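BUG-590 | component: ligand-complex export | severity: low

The export step for siroheme jobs runs without errors, but we want the raw record kept on the ticket for reference. Input record follows.
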Amino acid sequence: MSSTPDTATVPTTPAAKPLAKNEGLKAASNFLRGNILRDLADQSTGGITDDTGQLTKFHGIYAQDDRDLRNQLRREGKEKAFSFMARIRVPGGVCTPAQWVTLDALADTHANGTLKLTTRQAFQFHGILKGNLWSAINAVNRALLDTLAACGDVNRNVMCNPNPEQSELHAETLRVTKAIADHLLPRTRAYHEIWVGGDTLVAGGEPESEPVYGETYLPRKFKIVVAVPPSNDVDIYAHDLGFIAIADASGKKLLGFNITVGGGLGMSHNQVETFPRIADVLGFCRVDQVVDVAEKILTTQRDFGDRTDRKHARLKYTIEDRGVVWFRAEVERRLGYQLGSPRPFAFTHMGDRYGWVDGENGTSHYTLFLMSGRIKDTAELKLKTALREIALAHKGDFRLTANQNLIIASVRPEERPVIDALLRKHKLDRANDASGLALNAMSCVALPTCGLALAESERYLPELVANLETEMEAAGLRHDEITLRITGCPNGCGRPYLAEIGFVGRAPGKYNVYLGAAFNGSRLNILYKASVVETDIVALLGPIIRRYALERTKGERFGDFVIRTGYVKATGTPADFHDKAEKPAPVAPV
Ligand code: SRM
Ligand code: SF4
């Protein structure tokens, strides 16, 4: 099923435009080795060179510095406080209790004492010092996890509805997810050579190759998800490639998947040629075709994605520029067969279902709300300790959700009292009593580790939610579900453009406020007001929340209400989103 780069269809890049710098770096890197070992050995600095920093991303590692200390260190004429973030790939978000215990310990010995569950079902360590980096990544691999291709111009962690044992259908989608993830993993031996060791020779000393990617990999990152309706918890429309599980009439047998392509959220303020885009539904394929379809869609992007401009290099731009009809024809040409017509499906929500859910096989799964997915001990809540104790007692597994929450999964009936007792002991049984707003809130990491942050996000979310909760409670809406998401910059890591209320950082203490996405993740929001100062947010949104409480129609979602009543217009095309993005939409409630 593997394909070599298709030279008949490679001529994507207009000769006049030079390739982006990263293309040369990848080509010269000898399958992602570059100077990584040299830079790791350099003890004169806690950092690495910029070029090496581009390559370590493919190994799941980001060079960062503590931005809280930047100004002070600059004033003192000292080097930045460099450290590394490592992202651990967890296909479908499934890990074992033993793996949890290992990561929990590594967070203390090698990182900043916290674990972060990401918006794409992965773990992150922050604050790893250079001297600890090799042993951290090596230990992750010894726990049978890895960081390979968690970042970089490759297919990233493949996401899947995180409750696979809920039914056989869910279990089968996890198997499909893992098959896609395995097939699209880079084949370079560099990762094992550098971080694991002893893997420099393969049988017969064959020359190295990347059968799917080729030596310059993809033009940009590539993200795949698998969804099981009616839950859109993986936010399928935000991803380059998505598969929607389609069941037979009984709802139990998996017939195949609808395929979605061309979603993506990253954009830049004031650059109208960049925009978030909702994925298109491309067609249908059978279960046995999924891996092949994923490969041919990825290689089409490999060959036609824009390698001259990294801000225009995601699949969403290839599809926007060339059209979905062209894209489908090219994919079918590569497949050698036609895709089927999309089958009917319906998503009802993006959020997680909290508390206990019983599976068909007699086990149960407990979804626990975690604010921003950050696991640490504080004076008020020993969350990290609690989850370690649960991991030590737990016989099933853990599932990381795409909403930064955790499922204590596959709990047998006789184990349930043990888990319940531990949740109670550590007051975690109260976590799910949070307000409807908090339970549907998400943030990206932002400051102090993210080098691209323009404003706070994770550290500001609790205060932001608390302020708006006061308005919600006064309006009698404490338990109403409204999706709220915040990011520290427009890259969209917390998927803010798919929230009914989205905040996107513009500058310290200032956010663009977006309203009107669909509760089930199928419609982008649109700018309501630009550059709102933190202290003005409640005054801006409070009246809308109160009016929603009084005037909503039966079952009407907040995102639909703000469109019906004229606070914002529904997004149409991606360009439509952006045209308005820099000009505040008129406030003209009917
Ligand atoms: Fe992201 C870059 C964190 C999900 C779009 N993202 C970054 C970096 C690595 C900053 C950097 O390049 O220096 C951030 C590291 C911060 C830190 O200190 O940890 C970062 N992204 C995250 C995470 C950890 C946010 C979180 O709080 O969970 C998520 C990790 C997911 C994972 O496990 O793989 C994360 N990032 C996303 C998502 C959401 C998604 O994929 O569902 C998006 C929007 C969807 C999309 O890709 O369009 C997203 N991240 C970006 C972008 C913009 C890409 C673009 O096409 O424009 C960047 C910047 C870039 O790539 O140049 C970025
Ligand atoms: Fe950093 Fe921006 Fe992503 Fe937040 S959205 S983690 S600030 S890149």
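Assignee comment: Attached the raw record above. The domain at 355-434 is CATH 3.90.480.10 (Sulfite Reductase Hemoprotein; domain 2).
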